[in-house]
Amino acid sequence: MNIVPQGKRSGVLLVNTGTPAVPKPRAVRKYLARFLMDKRIAPMNRVGWWFVLHLFILPKRGRVSAEKYEKIWTDEGSPFTIAHEKLAAGLGAAFDEEGLDVAVRCAMSYSDPSVLDCVRELKDAGCTRLVVLPLYPQSAYSTTGSVSDSVEHALKKARWDVPCDFVDNYHDDPTYIRAIAASIEHAGFEVDSDDKVLFSFHSIPLVDIEAGDTYELQTGATSLQVASELGIDRNRWTIGYQCRFDKGREWLTPFTRDVLTRWAEAGVGRVFFICPNFAVDCLETLYDIDYELKPFYFDQIEQAGRTPDEACFTYVPCLDRSRAHLRVLADVLRPHIEEVPRD
């Protein structure tokens, strides 16, 4: 990673996937259309895919997904948006307390505020250097790579020729590892017991790995280091992958559901379920785990002839807008931000 050159003011751009503006079919379709037309997400023929997506997929998926978003929405709005706004504000305040001249913005790849809008804001704020941090601890072609595409396009569109440092990943950052381990313990995990940890990551197509994507290596490294931080043996934890996009391609396995099935049949101790590659809780955690994966696990236990209880499955929330998460992001970003005297 290259340190950005000396400048007057650093601009930090945090980037994540995004969320619909409201939990309604029309807004969800708009969001999904932007997401699913990304060539890194759906590498199909652009014209043919556009028609299939808009005529056959979005009408149904927009309605179904809107119902899911309704269940996780809060009185304040999207929990995803709120968490990112808090992170940007908290990170800006933390750097300000350190005497660092930093402007922080948080952009979304497929919703608002867009990467282009935030790049323009940082340019207008007088920033003379830029640090981009995709909020994906483990980098992947379909996530971090997409952010790289968006930032490159936005800089050209904004006509901003600025030194830019792109933080590709932070999967083994010591502060991140300690924060994940601490969150597991805070959730009630007992080291001196038979409690188990399931590290569940978003799956990616095998073709990406065959093309050189190091995502699988990073998920493994994160899990191993967190387990070492907890001080638990290999038989106390495993890895699963969830949220495959389609069935037309082979995806990174083992799938999380298959792991849960094996553990239900084996009658393991309490399961602590955590998603270390999601920086902020979103539909894939707030809905999928509570409404799909947890009930699925309980059903598998019943099929194995036992009666499940609430204590046998604990979801460990994402770092989200916590102080621990702010420390992680600040530590990841700090080497890329030089201390510059204020005017």
From TrEMBL:
It is found in: Cytoplasm. Fe(2+) binds at residues 202, 284. Pathway: Porphyrin-containing compound metabolism; protoheme biosynthesis. This is Coproporphyrin III ferrochelatase. The keyword Metal-binding applies. It holds the Pfam family Ferrochelatase. Belongs to the ferrochelatase family. Keywords: Cytoplasm, Heme biosynthesis, Iron, Lyase, Metal-binding, Porphyrin biosynthesis. It comes from Eggerthella guodeyinii. Its EC number is 4.99.1.9. Involved in coproporphyrin-dependent heme b biosynthesis. Catalyzes the insertion of ferrous iron into coproporphyrin III to form Fe-coproporphyrin III. Its main location: cytoplasm. It comes from the Bacteria. One of its GO terms (cellular component) is cytoplasm. It catalyses: Fe-coproporphyrin III + 2 H(+) = coproporphyrin III + Fe(2+). One of its GO terms (molecular function) is metal ion binding. Coiled coil: none annotated.
